[in-house]
Amino acid sequence: MExxxxxxxTQTAIVAALYxxxxxxxxFMSYGAVQFRVAxxxxxxxxxxxxxxxxxxxxxxxxxxxxxxxxxxxxxGTLATSIALLFIIFIKKIMKDNKKSLIIxxxxxxxxxxxxxxxxxxxxxxxxxxxxxAAYVAxxxxxxxxxxxxxxxxxxxxxxEKIPSM
Length: 166
What we know:
mainly alpha
């Protein structure tokens, strides 16, 4: 039991650290109205196994602590990611594991971030209407998660599925 707990904590920490590192390395494009957060590709890990949920949520929260928007981004961004992850898990559960379900699941982060981060940007800056902010956020998420993420995931899915279970 202790060995499994240690393995879970270790894998969770690795996923959180990887998400944070990718966000910070590409920080020039990880924050803002139009963002291409490369780390968001990792959200598709919950399509393989929901065990990655906590690591991804923690990675997002830690990454957003470095956001120029401050603590509000920690709360809003982490909420958006949590909802997106739950959507991905739900889609896999009802549609099973196939290319179509992966593509549909990848739209969860696009929609969730567009709505929540779009509202956040609209409230904080009042420069652009919600629909424009949401569209910018959705564009970045779509390119990263649905286009790049699905492609990478399908290319390396067999390898990713061999990661030892927690």
